[in-house]
Amino acid sequence: MISQANLILAVAVILFSVGTVTFLTKRSAVVALMGVELMLNGINLILLQAGQLHGNAEGSSLMLFVILVAAAEAALALSIFVMLYRRSGTLILENYRSMKG
To answer: Domain of 46?
Structure first.
């Protein structure tokens, strides 16, 4: 019998894995950003479950911090995407290799 804690951890690992594969394989910047958001949601589930298992609020407070960082990351990334789209007319990540240092 699978316990609820193990089920939640399995869903979190699946979310993180799908996010990692999406981030590493997709060419579109917006889809890659969605992969990062999936990874952060998987981490949030793990933090929440760890807080419940240990009976403290540290997992929940860390989860709120991750949500704040994810919101700031999404706002910054979307503003960069708008600037890049205005400059070149595309969001395909392979077209920006010339920006490497």
So the answer is: 4-92
CB-count exposure of residue 15 (10 Å: 0-12, 13-18, 19+): buried
CATH code of the domain covering residue 44 = 1.10.287.3510
Instruction: Collapse the DSSP code of 3 into the 3-class scheme (helix H, G, I; strand E, B; otherwise coil) and give the result.
Output: coil
Confidence class of residue 100 from pLDDT cuts 50, 70 and 90?
low
Which pLDDT does position 12 carry in this prediction? 95
Domain assignment present for residue 34? The answer is yes
pTM of the model: 0.82
